[in-house]
UniProtKB/TrEMBL annotation, chains A, B:
An annotated Gene Ontology molecular function: RNA methyltransferase activity
Keyword Cytoplasm: no
Protein name per Swiss-Prot or TrEMBL: RNA methyltransferase
Keywords, in A-Z order: Methyltransferase, S-adenosyl-L-methionine, Transferase
The species this protein was found in: Candidatus Acidianus copahuensis
Lineage: Archaea, Thermoproteota, Thermoprotei, Sulfolobales, Sulfolobaceae
UniProt-listed Pfam families: SpoU_methylase (PF00588)
Similarity annotation: Belongs to the class IV-like SAM-binding methyltransferase superfamily. RNA methyltransferase TrmH family.
Signal peptide: none
GO-annotated cellular components: cytosol
Domain tRNA/rRNA methyltransferase SpoU type: residue ranges: 2-148
């Protein structure tokens, strides 16, 4: 299941174009957090995707839009800044699609993108390669490229029978990494360590067996650290 | 050299967005054949690509836009119709980019695309994969996907020189994972946990900065566990 999440979109035309793209690429759900434009005015731009707009879920907070999601993928036109761990990113073709997972692709405001807080709440950050002189794509065009790459991946991998990792152990890996981090961190500025460990584990794990072994490892470490602090 | 050719575009916003995309993807030339809209009104949509609009070459015939071109690539949302040889198509990622050739990517009208005559005058037809139920992308979104794929082809092949992770932090990741494992394991049959964590971290880590952040995390966990056992 794939959900497109738009955070506070500002332009009707972008919302309409994105609804059309969701139709072009068979996206299951469109969520819009606090639209800053008139979604009704988006209809002319949605062409044959107007039913996607009718069914779009409008929510008032970011958390509402992502809380039931297994894999949260944030997008940004700023990425790989030296020294900024939060902005370490993957490329559109590296997004791992698994039909058993609920996946959200999250797009920020036209003007300022996603906040650091919003990116932090996601599992991955995707960056679309473009000219260094002017890498900022218009919102709906960023959406088109991501949805196109996901479509390629879904159609190509369907016959490949890749062994998937289930959402449950992945969620535990995220949770226990964070719990361990809370035990060892002295200040919030330590968080790049946690981001690096969680992201590398999620990126590197290959199957369910390995995922559950990692969960056991992290849980044991966490229990021991916890016990110590009692 | 890459030229984008728009044949009789009808929407200002599309022309503007396409100018922006030409800037995002360092396209050399934009030609517009008989625009059916006011190109001046496209400026607000071109953002930092407005200079591309200023330099755009407006011509009155299709032939003028392509006569000096070595490789002419037409695009269509209708392709591979059984028995219609003219519409046999290649995929965006199959476009062959050669920096020594003059290449034109040709996009048709929003309403009816390119005529059979216009496709016939080109060397290839590119078709962007999308849902069979609704494969017709909006014009500027089709442009974004094609330009993105060409960019990937030009760049990714050019510097395949992926930033490698140095052996030193990788060795530390292995060592500290094992040291932590020794602190938490009850028997040697626990070792798959360690193998899974180490392998996933080594597999998932992307660069030196991230690798050192993981080392710091593991070292902190280890020191804390060690301290507890004293």
């Amino acid at each position: 299941m794939i959900r497109v999440v738009l955070v506070e979109p500002e332009g009707e035309y972008n919302v309409g174009f994105i609804a059309r793209l969701c139709k072009n690429y068979e996206i299951d759900e469109l969520y819009i957090v606090n639209p800053r434009c008139d979604v009704k005015k988006a209809i002319p731009f949605s062409a044959k995707g107007s039913d996607i707009l009718d069914k779009a879920v409008i929510v008032s907070s970011y958390i509402e839009a992502i809380q039931d999601i297994d894999l949260k993928i944030a997008t940004s036109s700023i990425a790989n800044n030296e020294g900024d761990m939060l902005r370490k990113s993957i490329k559109p073709w590296e997004i791992d699609i698994d039909d058993n997972k609920k996946i959200a692709i999250i797009f920020g405001r036209e003007s300022v993108g996603l906040t650091r807080q919003e990116i932090y709440a996601a599992d991955f950050l995707v960056f679309i390669p473009a000219s260094e002189k002017y890498p900022t794509l218009n919102l709906s065009h960023a959406v088109s490229i991501i949805l196109y790459e996901i479509w390629k991946k879904r159609k190509e991998t369907k016959n490949q029978n890749i062994v998937a990792v289930s959402p449950e152990p992945l969620r535990f890996i995220g949770e226990y990494s964070e719990k361990i981090f809370r035990q060892i961190s002295r200040s919030n500025s330590d968080y790049p360590m946690f981001v690096a460990v969680k992201r590398s584990l999620l990126q590197g794990v290959r199957d369910n067996e390995e995922a559950w072994a990692i969960v056991r490892f992290l849980r044991k470490v966490y229990m021991k650290l916890l016990h110590q602090n009692e």
